[in-house]
Fold this protein.
Amino acid sequence: MRGNATTRHSNVALLGITEAVAPVEVSSKSFDDRLADTLKTLRLPKGLLQRVAGVTTRRNWEHPSDYIEGAADAGRRALEEAGVRPDQIGLLINASVSREMLEPSVAVAVHDSIGLSPAAMNFDITNACLGFVNGMTVAASMIDAGQIDYALIVAGEDMSRVQESTVERLRRDGITRDEYLNEFATLTLGSGAAAAVLGRADRHPEGHLIKGGVTRAATWNHGLCIGDYDGMFTDTQGLLDNGMQLISEAWAEAHDDGWEWTTMDHYIPHQISHVHVNALTEATKIDADRVAKTYPELGNVGPASLPITLARKSGEMKQGDRILCLGVGSGLNTAMLEITW
């Protein structure tokens, strides 16, 4: 069966990609210390986050709502890096899962904080951990269509609240080993923000060409990972097995559509854990040494993970390098996007 979408872009470049670092470091050891009694009762060892997930630390904001200003700060940095004025932006997309309320959108607060033009469209795209890649694809399509010249995509995430509610629940009397492991992945989450500026390639020969990519859905798996500020509940093995099957199908389909991604110079995956990176390299047969990793020090920063990783690794990229951004988001969906540096 053919996939849901293949996109090819003809005149779009990535002009800036930046992050805003959440200032408070939280170690995995600190969770072990707080959960020591639970681990002893359940006869589980300390150090699972480090050994199994590979996550040693993650970061949080000083105040939970700081992620909004974090997104705005990343946006301002991206504009400066791109050499684009705020009044030139025709579209702002916020791709975060974090939000303070059902309405209005997070995008309006970021739009206001940066001081974008009243003529700049602004809205949220939420699609679990794929939101940022989806936002780049939507913006690129609008640039190709001639509707806008420049777009700004942001994502700011706060995971401190779900961390705290999870720790308190895991410390309760009567918790079972299965219940503990069902929420284990929540403790890999971290906070941070990222932003990207896209523009017309014909006006910016110094930019990095966004070539296009593929998406594919397996939405019958929408119950495998469900989260809000009260907690994230994950069928870890089911999510891994079905996610890798989805990636494998999309990978094969991309090859049939003319994409050749087995020899990219850099792979920028959504950041989850050791287990997921190893499974990804096995499913796609890509070179593990070319897979960028930031989860050991940042954990899983939701939709901001991938662009933060791209921003951190961008200094290692040379002109002409081929980059593939890819990930799986709860739901399940996958998206892959090729960029030529």
